[in-house]
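REQUEST ID: PR-0412
SUBMITTED BY: lab tech R.K.
PRIORITY: routine
TASK: structure prediction, single protein chain
INPUT:
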Amino acid sequence: MVANLDGKYLVMKKNILDASVSTLQFRKLLFFIIVALVSTLMTPASFSSTQIANKSYSTSINGLWFKPSFNSIENTAVRKEVFFNYLLPAVIEKNIEITKLRELIINDKLDALELEELAIKYRLNLPITKEDLLIAIDVLPPSLVLAQAANESNWGRSRFAEDFNNYFGIWCFVKGCGIVPTKRDMNAKHEVATFDSLKDCVDYYVLTLNRNYAYQNLRAIRKSQRDNLSPVTGIALAEGLKGYAEIGEEYVNVIQAVIKFNNLERHDL
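STATUS: complete
OUTPUT:
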């Protein structure tokens, strides 16, 4: 009789424990879904154009830069959505900044000294023309930026993204400029750049694509799209990224696949 009661007790205890585990898993999943939903609701699409222009949404997201712990999000779909919604405001804000600068250039609102400073910043030859500046100073489609960030940072889970806000695998070449990779070749000199914030990282990444010689073809593709009055798309500009990684054309295919699989061009509209 006692043995029978003990057996029933053990079965009951196991059922209670199983129910507790299931409840805990459900709560965790529910939490991440809520985070994703809140993140979705707080993207710039949720704000008016006036709020975006005045950056009044920044204190909610960009100003404090609430940073999710992507490594702790087990559900892949939820992790992706949280990742995109974390980066997207910074990308949109940067594109707004560039658009305003382009308007100043087009409308001749900058003096000679300001134009010369821009030419130096974007590594353009002097004397500078308006067309030269507009080729270099232009927006990047969010789809392209998000796809590269996802690929280079392993969806925000890399050590360099998590600890140093480097979402694009950006290197620097001055001793002490960043973090030495643990698997760096003995004769290599590069370090992985560190940034104080996501905004700083996005700023540098955009500047890199807009001025480095390796991405001259990307800028030419973008100019061609503008000349043809076509939308500037991430799929098209990805063709200019062969110099971003050693694998060249394969890298282009990877970025384009990320854009297509995750329907990222919906953010380019």
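NOTES: The chain has one domain: 42-268.
REVIEWED BY: pending
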